[in-house]
Amino acid sequence: MSQFRFWFILQQDVDRPVGGVKQIYTVASIISGLGYSVCIVQGTSDFRPSWFPATELNFRTIGNQGFSFDKLNPLLDVVIIPETFLPLLPRLSHLKVIIFNQNMHYLFGERINLDPSFVIRAYSSPNIIAVWTVSATDYSYALDLLPVPSYRIHRIVNAIDEKLFNFGFSTNKSIAYMTRKNSSHSRVVLELIRSQAWFKNSGWSFTPIINKSLSEVSAILSESSIFLSFGYPEGFGLPLAEAIVSGCMVVGYDGIGGTEISDLCKPFDVFASIPFRDFHSFAKGVQKAATSYDSSVSLKLRSRLLQAAKLTSFRYSTESMVNSVNEAIESIVLS
């Protein structure tokens, strides 16, 4: 077994099930399970996120106060940073670094506030031993445009939690949505729909998903018939896959990173991908989806949803994620 030790840099305690942070904990757990020493550098050493299963916390944690990059061994230690932590790189020039880029659309900062020339120089640094991405579009982006050798670019599969998200065909007239990204869009779309004649007295209602645990998200999706996606841009868009596996029709943005999910579901006509900020198409897409449940072909709809759910859960399984992480780690160990 390699002597490499892996250090994930978070620098804060996050007790909200934010997708990117959750995936860092998940990947850390997988690497630890593969037999490597793993530590997450967070706000405080004893913090434990309420949304992450305690039984899977098989790695060490350390607080910022007790951590220093200068104490790491350049031969043994590998530092893993999110794509938004590029300003840290000047302090890491003596260490091996992996950039875990979970959203290539944040390559130049969430607000595109990083100097593009600095970003390109950063990714050109000789101590960048790998760039990890999480979707087909992001992988292609990195492969085609980053100054990084192709053999150092890997795609980590985002897995759906099979213990929480399972297929069910809900006939509840419930439409679920998340507000974390583009909340102004959700307000506009919901108000447009509420004002339509078809919606009034239809029995349909909206259920927001705000600051919920994963089990609560799972429960809401299992009781909903339609999921509205307002996430854009997304590195992958795991909620899209979770909604499909839960048996929901999806209407909304694929976030670019979720294009592969939309394409996967295309043969089953259960994902209406809406162009960004096209509120007209968004409202009409919801009306069409709601009509599908009201029509006499609902049994066929259940069959289509089931097929899409099975294919999606297979494509984004825990096994697939573990295999992708293992391949990414082996490429480092063997290089």
- SSE arrangement, N to C: EHEEEEHEHEEHEHEHEHEHHH
Instruction: Kindly report how far apart the N and C termini lie.
Output: 14 Å
Mean pLDDT score, rounded?
Answer: 94
Strand content: 15-25%
Q: What is the C-alpha radius of gyration, as a whole number of Å?
A: 21 Å
Percent range for helical residues? Answer: 25-40%
Q: What gross morphology would you assign?
A: elongated
In the predicted model, the low-confidence regions spanning at least 5 consecutive residues are none
Number of helices: 10
Structural class: alpha/beta
Quick recap:
The protein has 335 residues and is an alpha/beta fold.
Structure description:
The protein is of the alpha/beta class and 335 residues long. It has helices at 19-33, 116-123, 136-145, 183-194, 214-222, 238-245, 259-265, 279-294, 298-315, 318-333; strands spanning 5-9, 37-42, 60-63, 77-82, 96-100, 128-133, 153-155, 174-178, 205-209, 226-229, 249-252, 271-273. The longest helix is centred in the C-terminal third of the chain and has 18 residues, at 298-315.
